[in-house]
Amino acid sequence: MKAVISLDGILSFIHSLSLSASNKQWLGEKLLEEARQEKAAAQEQSYADYIESLCGAWKDDPRTAEEITDDLRQARQFGVTRHIRPLSDE
Question: What is the pTM of this model?
């Protein structure tokens, strides 16, 4: 079951508790600290998702890292002559 919570209602409830100034400050600091931690965690997760999207191309590949390295080395073409043409017609 989903509930809709009114922040104004929560604030009214807090005001009804007759908290001292130091209690209100403590509560505010705790809420800010928790909000900063949640924001940092969300940002770290977003970075992790981004890095995984870049680096995770082979994560489902059943081959080991050594097998992938060997395949890449075998795919290279050694001894291919490349003809380099000058940019100017001198």
Answer: 0.48
The DSSP string of 34-84 is HHHHHHHHHHHHHHHHHHHHHHGGGTT--S-HHHHHHHHHHHS-TT---PP
What count of other Cβ atoms lies within 10 Å of the Cβ of residue 49? Answer: 11
Residues 6-45 pLDDT 10s? 888 888 999 999 999 999 999 999 999 999 999 998 888 8
**What is the four-CA torsion angle of 63, 64, 70, 73, rounded to 10 degrees?**
80
Distance of CA 30 to the CA centre of its chain: 25
